[in-house]
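Homework help board

Subject: predicted structure for assignment chain

Our instructor gave us this sequence and asked us to write out the predicted structure in token form, then describe one feature. I got the tokens but I'm not sure how to describe them. Can anyone check?
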Amino acid sequence: MMKIYNTMTRQKEEFKTIEPGKVRMYLCGPTVYNYIHVGNARSTVAFDTVRRYLEYKGYEVNYVSNFTDVDDRIINQAIEEGVSTKEIADKYIDAFTEDTGKLNVKPACVHPRVIDHIEEIIEFVEALIEKGFAYESQGDVYYRARKFKNYGQLSNKSLDELEVGASQRTGSEQDKKEDPLDFALWKAAKEGEVSWNSPWGAGRPGWHIECSVMVNKHLGTTIDIHAGGQDLEFPHHENEIAQSEAKTGETFANYWMHNAYLTVGESGEKMSKSLKNFVTAHELMEEVDPEIVRFALAKTHYRHPMPFNEVIIKEATSNLSKIKSSLNNTLFRLEQAEKSLEDDQDYLNELKQIKEQFEKGMDDDFNAANGITAVYSLVKWLNAYLEKNKVSQVVLEQSVALLTTLMAVFGLDLGKKEMLDEEIEALIEERNAARKNKDFKRSDDIRDELKEMGIILEDTSQGTRWSRA
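My token output:
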């Protein structure tokens, strides 16, 4: 039985899906105004691991993760660089795709963008106004937070606590509100900002309404899992619930999952751009093998704060090396192994027990720390088996299959074939010939094929250069 810690109820609950064998899962994606830092990468990797384990268990996962491409920070960055907000968003979406690709994060089934959902957002806001949950004020539209009876439940905050915090905020926006608790659904356009026409004048969406609309459009009114960083519990996820349930009258998400912070320094403060104590994933992976970074991020339980330092990287490097060494030794012995031996079933039963140990750990709220302990047990067991004078092909093949399968849950493709230089050069020659013959489809296919194998091409005036990602 699989259990998930539900932030809403603050306890582990048996996981039951809306549709048998299918999971609707939404992860709040990045606001694309800069490179993601390692803390952002942790959230992406953590829930990619959750997704992979659900798929390992046989679920069909409809996994949606958005790009927030309409936001104050994007507007400010665009002004600073002297380009459009779309250019900024496109640039950092490409960077996110490149960085997460290196971390072997599976692309979402859908990566919706806010700019493609403006019409639906306006319709959503209109519906909230009609129901009395929202009101227009000087071109802005606000949500009546106090009208939603369960407001504060997810973040475990009382209305009194929230009111104290809201009352400390000042500025012209506060004067437009009926209540300090109210939050913006639509913001009137300021001079020079990107905007769209609406029934309330030119403006743009508020942050919270964007995710509500994208969830409803791509996954439905009720989803199985809504995930994100711990810092999103309030106000973002709290406000998503209020908006969505007010409009539909249905439960927005059955399970809420939040990953803990990545911490830095002896004081253990969270890594964040606002504190300026961050390292971008892009920078880190220029110095550390992305596979090591992925392993370091994936093997810690998502709800536990994770320190980020050299010790963590060294430990991940050492442990991954031991796993790969065991796999390579197994593949070497496989070539001379006996087809089968009398005691095979005993060893296959032990392999089954290790697999069950892995699943027991991961079924308990995706406890990656316990899951990776099972992998280490498998490696230790395998190393001991390899010391036998005679080894069985059956046992070794099952061992390799189990090890590669379990590591794939953590996003490590140990069975991935690495292309030889000669194979790469041959494909580049074929691509050059295709381009010369104006067969651009084949040319693009070859580029994509090489990219999937971790080979990056760069077309220059001196010819095509390649490098391994």
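Reply (TA_rk): Your tokens look well-formed. For the description, you could write something like this. The chain has a mean pLDDT of 92. That's the kind of observation they're looking for.
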